[in-house]
Amino acid sequence: MKEVRDPLTGHMTTGHEWNGITELNTRVPRAIWLFILVTHVWALIIWILLPAWPVGTTYTKGVLGLDQRQQVNKEIAAAERAFAERDRQIRERSVPEIMTDVSLMNYVMDTASAIFGDNCAVCHGTAASGGPGYPSLIDTDWLWGGDTDQIMETLRVGINSQHPDTRHAQMPAFGRLGVLSGRDVRLLVPYVKSLSGSDIPAEVRAAGEDLFSRNCSSCHGADGMGRLQAGAPNLTDDVWLYGGGDNDIFYTIWDGRQGWMPAWQARLSDEDRKMLVIYLQELADGERP
Amino acid sequence: MISRLTSGERSIALMLASTGALIGVLMGAFGSGDPMGVHGWIVLAFCGALILVIGNNFYDPEPSEDRTLSYYDDPTKAGLIIALSWAVVGMGMGVWVACQLAWPDFRFENAWSSFGRIRPVHTTGIIFGFGGNALIATSFHIMQRTSRARIPDQVAPWFVLLGYNLFCLIAVSGYLMGVTQSKEYAEPEWYADIWLVVVWVSYFTLYVRTLARRNEPHIYVANWYYLAFILVMAVLHVVNNLALPASFSGAKSYSVFGGVQDAMTQWWYGHNAVAFFLTSGFLGMLYYFLPKRAERPIYSYRLSILSFWGITFFYIWVGSHHLHYTALPHWVQTLGMTFSIMLLVPSWASAGNALMTLNGAWNKVRDDAALRFMMIAAVFYGLSTFEGSFLAIRPVNGLSHYTDWTVGHVHAGAMGWVAFITFGSIYTLAPILWKRAGMYSAKAVEWHFWFALAGTVIYVFAMWNSGITQGLMWRTYNESGTLKYPFIDTVVAMRPYYIARAFGGLLFLSGACIGFWNVVMTIRRAPLKEPERDYPMNSEEPQVAAVAGK
Ligand code: HEM
Questions:
Q1: CA of B399 to the centre of ligand 1 (A)
Q2: Does B80 share its domain with B38?
Q3: Domain range for residue A196?
Q4: Has residue B43 been placed in a domain?
Q5: Which of A25, B308, B317, B533 has the smallest C-beta neighbourhood within 10 Å, fewest atoms?
Q6: Are residues A31 and A85 in the same domain?
Q7: How far away is chain B from the Cα of A86, in angstroms, using its nearest Cα?
Q8: Does the residue B345 lie in any domain?
Q9: Within this chain, do residues B140 and B99 fall inside the same structural domain, yes or no?
Q10: Where do the annotations place heme b 2; high-spin binding (chain B) (predicted)?
Q11: Is there a single domain that holds both residue B275 and residue B422?
């Protein structure tokens, strides 16, 4: 094929043809050369300014002397300096003191809400109100105690965790391990419910009371009010960790329950944990009418 | 199809299939109790089916057609149908993955259907299943047409096509069983990788053998791109998959690279997979089907040269922009960033060359949805390369990295560019292959076009919004100087966009289903028409007999 002029654009073809396809020999538009120039000059400038090309075992450092590793170390150091004073105050002052310092409290609430969201919300919910198997942290019902020191300790060591000092929450599997028969467990279900006020026939109560005092009271107390040292919940209120339905209670007694909460000592600093405790107390106060 | 093979070719095919079956049995036996064993049985079933098909027609009479008179299109036809099947499967998986992100219960409590397993089924299904088969099929067509020569033999193209699909099957079934090397887009384990090398080498040889027989003095641009795709993918694949199997009877291996070197090798591979698989190959497609359909000469040959070498040279350097602000040394990141910016010009030169080629054919773009598919593809190609270069700038990447913005960018490329150019090409190619006057339903092509465009736009906008929101939330500080939003808040913020994305994906999938149906109906119902001058150089007449032989 010969080179011909394309009538539409006025450019010549290259004279090649492939199954009907031809090409024009249009020259590369000036704009393209210009952009090539601009991008290359830009790249050149960047190479001069920043670390860029390997040379043997080292590399060109760039005239700005920037390096991401040094930069990040610097930024971390600056952040640590900025927070050092506030961290010191949180460490050294008591909770009531902190709670009366408005500016420090703002800092605590701002910071702790993100810490809570990133570490605790997966289990306890974004509003800390809990869910099945995970206790609410903003009510007055505590498994292990709601004092500052008690919560601090719960956070430090966790529950059934791998921490050497962990708290142990062991609700034994009475049915599965053969301590109680299915009939006993079925008797205990209405009895447990009656502790929080529901009516049951007198003979069921008598049998249940007997079973309860022999098997359960060591942890839940003779009156079912629970014992903080064992993490055994109060059974006389209508707050249920694992559900208050007949089936839920049956399985609690039959299979046992061992809630698991990680220890935070190695993951969150003392200051962070203290802020969390204050944060939870504030949330709980907000909940109270 | 078997009856078109000579008895010698049939014997070779039978031998190859039997060897495959034997390997399958060995894998099944040695790997029993391991996913590799299951893979052995899959290989055996695949090769067994082939043996049956070949055996059934083994003693058919020798073919009488004169092979110099026509092109060999059977593998192209099969490849096209397989590509469309993968499209529906891969996009279907995509919609499912999207639904899992919006509604986590869509997992249905199975191990195999968990997010981590079906996500790679989606990516592999689309990139390698749909994209790869479309590339192989169109390359068979284009290498013959632009060389005016028939493919040199009739077993090799089948070996490439079927072997490649066996690889895809092993890959995808492996993910469902939890088999992965944990390298993105290079998940399959060592034995699948070795198999792909074998297939790929025969693909390359086949291509070069065809070109060697060409009856045209020059090699058309489309072929440069396809060859770059085949050659560079081979190098990338081999290097990134260098690994030591933990045992020869199990699907587990350890990369020979460690730490940051491993990450750099992976993203050198990863970005060049984008470059040479998802860009170079499809540019080959564009360079053939767009001028063909528009019936216009390529705007500038010189621009083609400039952009081909520009893309080929610059892409190799940019992988490190996937590792900004990581343990990778700063200087490597600088190089990745600067070369990404320099890469923009040749990329836009390609997109511009395509769009300028349409000058004088804009009325066709308006009326012909197939050409419009290709036009939009060029636009999205320009868009996603601009976005890519922008995202490669370190501070921008600091915002975008790890967010849905990357996902938005990817899908502007994968849906808007790769899938659009493929569908436009398929609508051009199918009538030629099956010698039809046109697609069965032009209206259905229109519908597909608008579904696909709406789906892409919804998807990409949703992910831009989601990604930028996410990125900004992650770096928002409150007055106390500490981070404002816990991660979970960003998850909540993304939810509406995830729902929108699932909807956009569903639209795109619906379009693909319409397209598949339309192709099937074209094969079955559309009126016959002999394509013009569709035969190799040395034949005078179109060979109707060759078609009937199928
Ligand atoms: C000039 C051309 C391009 C450049 C410079 C570029 C650059 C980038 C950058 C900076 C990222 C984000 C990396 C991160 O933050 O993780 C990325 C991701 C990605 N791009 Fe592009 N891009 C280009 C074109 C394309 C095209 C045309 C496609 C599709 C056909 C594409 C597909 C992808 C994919 C699949 C990813 C995701 C990788 C992952 O899984 O993280 N890119 N690209």
A1: 15
A2: no
A3: 170-255
A4: yes
A5: B533
A6: no
A7: 10
A8: yes
A9: yes
A10: 409
A11: yes
Residue nearest to atom 43 of ligand 1 (CA): B388
Condensed to tens digits (0 to 9), the pLDDT of residues A169-186 reads: 999 999 999 999 999 999
Q: Confirm whether A260 is domain-assigned.
A: no
CA triple B344-B376-B95, angle to 5 deg: 100
Q: pTM higher than 0.95 for the full model? A: no
CA distances from B221 to B138, B334, B409, B420, B533 (A): 14, 32, 27, 20, 21
Q: Is the pLDDT of residue A288 over 80?
A: no
**Residues B321 and B351 grouped into a single domain:** yes
pLDDT tens across A224-282, in order?
Answer: 999 888 899 999 998 999 999 999 999 999 999 999 999 999 999 999 999 999 999 99
pLDDT confidence band for A289 (50 / 70 / 90):
low
Judged against a pLDDT cut of 70, whether residue A157 lies above it is answered with: yes
**What does DSSP assign to residue B300?**
B
For residue B251 and ligand 1, the question of a CB distance below 6 A is answered with no
Interface of B with A in 144-163 (CB under 8 A): 145-146, 148
Mean pLDDT by 10 residues, chain B (550 residues): 90 96 97 95 98 93 88 96 98 97 92 96 97 98 95 95 98 97 96 98 97 93 97 96 95 95 97 94 97 96 96 94 96 97 97 96 96 98 97 97 97 98 98 95 97 98 97 94 92 96 98 98 93 76 42
The H-or-E segment that residue B406 falls in is helix B404-411
Residue partners of A64: CB distance under 8 A and separation at least 6: A49, A50
Q: In this structure, are residues A130 and A137 in contact, taking their beta carbons and an 8 Å threshold?
A: yes
Write out residues 43-102 of B within 8 Å (CB-CB) of A: none
Give B255's strand partners: B243
Residue B537 inside a domain? The answer is no
Q: Is residue B156 a part of any domain in this protein?
A: yes
Structural domains of chain A, count: 3
Q: Which of B288, B299, B532 sits opposite A24 (nearest CB)?
A: B299
Instruction: Report the gap between the CA of B328 and the closest CA in chain A (Å).
Output: 10
* Ligand 1 contacts CB of residue B347 (under 6 A): yes
Burial B327-340 (b: 16+ CB within 10 A, else e): ebbbbbbbbbbbbb
Residue B184 Cβ inside 6 Å of ligand 1? The answer reads yes
Whether residue A42 lies inside any domain: the answer is yes
Residues of A in contact with B297 (CB under 8 A): 6, 13, 21-24
Is residue A247 domain-shared with residue A183, that is, in the same domain?
A: yes
CA distance, residue A191 to nearest chain B CA (Å): 36
Partner-chain contact B297 A21, CB within 8 Å: yes
CATH number at residue B478: 1.20.210.10
CATH code, A235: 1.10.760.10
* E-state strands within B198-256: 243-245, 253-255
pLDDT at position B549 = 39
Residues 6+ positions from B424 with CB-CB distance below 8 Å: B289, B290, B293, B370, B371, B372, B373, B374, B377
Q: What is the pLDDT of residues B3-35, one digit of tens each?
A: 899 999 999 999 999 999 999 999 999 999 999
CA of B96 to the centre of ligand 1 (A): 23
Instruction: Please work out, in degrees rounded to the nearest 5, the angle formed at the alpha carbon of residue B489 by the alpha carbons of B182 and A139.
Output: 120
**One domain, residues B30 and B102:** no
Query: Which residue range forms the structural domain that includes residue B29?
Result: 1-58
- Nearest chain B residue to A20 by CA distance is B292
Residues from chain A that touch B296, judged by Cβ atoms under 8 A, are 8
Distance from CA of A33 to the nearest CA of B (A): 9
Closest CA to A281 of A94, A122, A132: A94
Q: How far apart are CA B289 and CA B426, in angstroms?
A: 9
Among B292, B342, B479, select the one facing A40 at the smallest CB separation.
Answer: B342
Same domain, A27 and A90: no
Domains in chain B: how many in total? Answer: 2
Question: Mutation test of the interface with chain B: which of A4, A23, A53, A75, choosing the one with the most B Cβ atoms within 10 A?
Answer: A23
